[in-house]
Amino acid sequence: MEFFDIFLLEAVINGLLLGGVLALLALGLNLIFGVIDVVWICYAELVMIGMYAVYYTHNVFGWPLWLAMLVAILSVAALGAVLHQFVIRPVLAAEPINQLLVTGGVLFFLQAAATLVFGVEFRNIGVSLPALQFGGMYLSFARLIAFLVALGGMVGVYLFLTRTYVGTAIRAISQDRAIMPLMGVNANRIFVITSALGGGLAGLAACLLVLQYDIHPAIGLTFGPITFIIVVLGGLGNMLGGFIAAFIFAQFISVGGYVLHIEWGYVLAFLFFIAMMFWRPQGILGGK
Amino acid sequence: MLNLAAVSAGYGGFQALFEVSLEVKAGESVAVIGPNGAGKTTLLRVISKLIDARSGEISMEGRPLENVPSYEVIGYGIAHVPENRRLFAKLSVEDNLRMGAFIPAARAKYAERLEFVYSLFPRMRERRHQIAGTLSGGEQQMCAIGRALMSGPKLLLLDEPSAGLAPVVVQSIFELVRRICKEGYTVLIVEQNIRQVLKVVHRAYLLETGRIRLSGTSAELLDSDLIKKAYLGL
Ligand SMILES: Nc1ncnc2c1ncn2[C@@H]1O[C@H](COP(=O)(O)OP(=O)(O)OP(=O)(O)O)[C@@H](O)[C@H]1O
Ligand SMILES: [Mg+2]
């Protein structure tokens, strides 16, 4: 019985570690939605591009891993800015359904383009970090790092949003866009910066996930739906709600997967989501 | 300082301003008075470039504002306190004030101006961490004026600062406008509260259905039969 508890504890801790990365993804998506009012359905595909960026710069060009990761983060940030300027901006005034379809189109475009350019083979950056043994439990070092870096990234975003002029403008613009010019704020510039920040967070998530997962053109489907569901669960646009929902969801996956079976973890998590949509459709903390 | 020459403007097929000409000299306080729908708010929006003039010219200190995007107008020294205050309701008082200092030239003087705004409105210092949406109406107006002052403007545009406030608060808002003028700001204020505003400003224009009907010093306007009959009920 004692043995059982240790594995359960291990599952709880793994869920916590997973929750960190999911929270990072949810933050990026929430930031974009909260500020620009458009859901980037293609968000996880940006992560996929970031993972390939790490793979190509590190494994093909032979750059050191830290540089490869930095380049990946900056490239995905730039991709986010480009996505806003050329795809989102023209449909800002359109119906939400059209905006959704457009970003959905980008999702399939990026997947198809990745298949064309990178091929369908699974790639791996070949960096394997040791497992940590801790009081009879085995914990993945890569997951621990991912958790800590994700937390650090979220703290960084929080400080940026609360301590800087541009960050304050990002929080303000979602409340009253029409008067931003009276503050001397070019609204489009703030949207581009927000999109780059959202992209940069996807790039950071890519750097963390590439340590744990193989890369392939459809890897976005592994995280995209979960991220979207977490964001809805937390309340669309509610960053704190998304943070909490990420950890709840991760526990369903991890502990549910341990108690029953790994596939059951996801089934339970999605069932929980559907039940919540009946009970609290506005999300745990309410949307914006 | 501010010059409007035969400015016309409107919305879609509707014309709201007809060849409005108006001048505000440095150090002056000027009011634009008029009934609902006269085009007062539209006039301030045109000056801030929130909407484009269809014809006519607007210049600030001799520099034309034509082709200046709305977000650069504040760089010319024009700060606009919009109708209904339009605070960022979910941000704190201090974050609202910080937004007023967004332009790079203002950021360098943030601490100094914040101190000035707090000395002008000690209430804002007490409430600096409060969420702006929970302030009382009068406090919100102070916050909105403080936010505009944070950019260090030469000219302050005020759109009906007394609207929706209790009579005693209205009194204190006009007192405040008087103090702001004394501090050396040039003020262009839009008001329906004609009797009160004419006690505060040097000169005024009467705007009716988009046209300037009358202009003169406050004393002249208070004395005119038109104002007495139509607006003061004498
Ligand atoms: N966004 C808009 N679209 C169409 N017409 C508008 C718009 N804003 C104002 N108008 C019209 O322009 C005219 C002038 O409006 P404006 O808001 O400038 O009046 P005002 O003098 O500020 O009135 P009030 O004292 O009630 O604030 C009104 O007839 C109004 O209906
Ligand atoms: Mg008005």
CATH-defined topology of one domain in chain B: Rossmann fold
Looking at the overall shape, the CATH architecture of one domain in chain B is 3-Layer(aba) Sandwich
Q: Give helix and strand order of chain A, one letter per element, not per position.
A: HHHHEEHHHHHH
Q: What hetero molecules are in the model? A: adenosine-5'-triphosphate, magnesium ion
From the helix content, strand content and strand pairing of chain B, which structural class follows?
Answer: alpha/beta
What is the overall number of helices of chain A? Answer: 10
Portion of residues in beta strands of chain A equals under 5%
Biggest protein-protein interface? Answer: A-B, 17 and 29 residues
**Relative helix content of chain B:** 25-40%
Q: Determine the number of helices of chain B (DSSP H or I, runs of at least 4 residues).
A: 10
Approximate strand percentage of chain B: 25-35%
- CATH superfamily membership of one domain in chain B, which one? P-loop containing nucleotide triphosphate hydrolases
Q: How do the strands line up in the largest sheet of chain B?
A: 6-7-8-3-9-10
Q: How many strand elements of chain A?
A: 2
Termini separation of chain A (Å)?
46 Å
Taking all residues together, what is the mean pLDDT of chain A? 91
Largest sheet of chain B: 6 strands, mixed
Largest sheet of chain A: 2 strands, antiparallel
Q: Can you tell me about this structure?
A:
The complex is a heterodimer of chains A (288) and B (234). With 288 residues, chain A is mainly α. Chain A has a single domain, classed as ABC transporter involved in vitamin B12 uptake, BtuC (Orthogonal Bundle), CATH 1.10.3470. Chain A contains 10 helices and 2 strands; from the N terminus they run ααααββαααααα. The model of chain A has no long low-confidence stretch (mean pLDDT 91). In chain B, the strands form 2 sheets. In chain B, strands 6-7-8-3-9-10 form a 6-stranded mixed beta sheet, with helices on both faces. The termini of chain B are far apart. In chain B, strand 1 and strand 2 form a beta hairpin. Chains A and B meet through helix 6 of A and helix 2 of B.
